[in-house]
Amino acid sequence: MNRYTLLLCLAVTAQAEPLPKFWAALHQVETRGRSGPIRGDGGRSFGPLQISLAYWKDAKVKGKYSDCSKLAYSITVAKAYMKRHAPKAYRDNNYEVLARVHNGGPSGHRKRATIKYWNKVRKEIK
Length: 126
Prior knowledge:
Strand order of the largest sheet: 1-2-3
Number of strands: 3
Number of helices: 7
CATH topology: Lysozyme
Distance between the termini: 39 Å
Strand content: under 5%
Mean pLDDT: 87
Order of helices and strands: HHEEEHHHHH
Largest sheet: 3 strands, antiparallel
Radius of gyration: 15 Å
Oligomer: single chain
CATH architecture: Orthogonal Bundle
Shape: globular
Helix content: 55-70%
C-alpha cells in the first residue's frame, strides 16, 4: 500500500465515525451528561448512554455489561450496535437514523415513537 492509499484510507475511516458531538448529544439526552452506574427505564437500561442488556449482548463487544457504566465503553458498544444495525447510516453520519436506532432498536428509525427522541438529540447537536 503506497502512502497516498494509506492516507486516503485513513481519511475515509475518519469520515465514517460519527462526530463527538453526536455522542455528547446522546449522553446529554440519556443522562444529562452524568456517568457511572446509572439505572434508567425502570432498571432496564444502564450507564451514561442507558444501554439495555439486550442491546449490549447484540453489540457483541468484549467486556462485561457492568462496563457500560463507563462512557468510553458505552460509546464502543453503541458504535458496534449501530454498525451492525444501521451500517449505511453510520457510514453517512446520518444522526437521525442512528439516534432513532439507539432509542428504538434495529428498526427504530421506522418507529414513530422515536421521532420525539430524535428531536431531543438534534437539539443537543445544534
